[in-house]
Amino acid sequence: MSPLDIDPIIFSIGPVSVRWYGMMYVIGFIIANVILKKLVDMGFYKIEKEKIDSMITTMLISMFLGARLAYVFIYNWDYYSQHLTELLHVWQGGLSFHGAIVGLLVGGWIFAKKNNISWAQVMDATCLAGPPGLFFGRMGNFINGELYGRITDSPLGIVFKGGGPYPRHPSQIYEGVAEGLIMFLVLWFIKTKVKRYGVISCSFVIGYGFFRYFIEFFREADQQLGYYFGGTTTMGQILCILMIVGGFTTMYFNSKRNDPIV
């Protein structure tokens, strides 16, 4: 079986290269913009459409800062402590989704305070608009041949250049479908049933933690971290458990708040 060989560069103009990975994020944010404006039209998200671009910019900066800082300090500090000049080299890879969640929470709080709306409303809108971006982001990982899965004899196995000569689970696709497409459909269905802001964002945190926890059994552990608890659990799974617990805890306290969707 030949290794997956997709050129990560779409085209180059002089020294400037446009990469599939970056293009996937651009597509994700364009779709998020459309969904957010649709939520405003539906009366679910109560802000002016003109503020959507400001929201996306705030969330984008916060997300990337959180994703990068978590990757550097939680996943790979041993390396970056010796290569401080590479701290901002995000084009080389190295973003943590769990860190991105923290960044989005901070960005959502800043935007909510600035625009005098509830934090829960901002985060619900974010969680409804974000999953398509997760799908395209994972497709970018697939094209780059990174974050691949464990060795398998399954017919779904793919040989990745950086993963040795044996077929591996395309776990990037598993994650994209589960955490992106399925999550979006589930949350969009929930949107028509809930009566209070905060339920959708809590459901996203719980759902993502659930999907990611089980997909981690197919995904190769980060080389620099390996496994914990006797070789059975990855750092990603530990963080997913914390997400699930945090999601249910927040859901409980949110039920005490008076933030109705009207």
From TrEMBL:
<dbReference type="GO" id="GO:0005886">
    <property type="term" value="C:plasma membrane"/>
</dbReference>
<keyword id="KW-0472">Membrane</keyword>
<protein>
    <recommendedName>
        <fullName>Phosphatidylglycerol--prolipoprotein diacylglyceryl transferase</fullName>
        <ecNumber>2.5.1.145</ecNumber>
    </recommendedName>
</protein>
<comment type="function">
    <text>Catalyzes the transfer of the diacylglyceryl group from phosphatidylglycerol to the sulfhydryl group of the N-terminal cysteine of a prolipoprotein, the first step in the formation of mature lipoproteins.</text>
</comment>
<comment type="similarity">
    <text>Belongs to the Lgt family.</text>
</comment>
<feature type="transmembrane region" description="Helical">
    <location>
        <begin position="20"/>
        <end position="36"/>
    </location>
</feature>
<feature type="transmembrane region" description="Helical">
    <location>
        <begin position="56"/>
        <end position="75"/>
    </location>
</feature>
<dbReference type="GO" id="GO:0008961">
    <property type="term" value="F:phosphatidylglycerol-prolipoprotein diacylglyceryl transferase activity"/>
</dbReference>
<keyword id="KW-0812">Transmembrane</keyword>
<keyword id="KW-1003">Cell membrane</keyword>
<keyword id="KW-0449">Lipoprotein</keyword>
<feature type="binding site">
    <location>
        <position position="138"/>
    </location>
    <ligand>
        <name>a 1,2-diacyl-sn-glycero-3-phospho-(1'-sn-glycerol)</name>
    </ligand>
</feature>
<dbReference type="GO" id="GO:0042158">
    <property type="term" value="P:lipoprotein biosynthetic process"/>
</dbReference>
<keyword id="KW-0808">Transferase</keyword>
<feature type="transmembrane region" description="Helical">
    <location>
        <begin position="227"/>
        <end position="253"/>
    </location>
</feature>
<feature type="transmembrane region" description="Helical">
    <location>
        <begin position="95"/>
        <end position="112"/>
    </location>
</feature>
<comment type="pathway">
    <text>Protein modification; lipoprotein biosynthesis (diacylglyceryl transfer).</text>
</comment>
<dbReference type="InterPro" id="IPR001640">
    <property type="entry name" value="Lgt"/>
</dbReference>
<feature type="transmembrane region" description="Helical">
    <location>
        <begin position="196"/>
        <end position="215"/>
    </location>
</feature>
<keyword id="KW-1133">Transmembrane helix</keyword>
<dbReference type="Pfam" id="PF01790">
    <property type="entry name" value="LGT"/>
</dbReference>
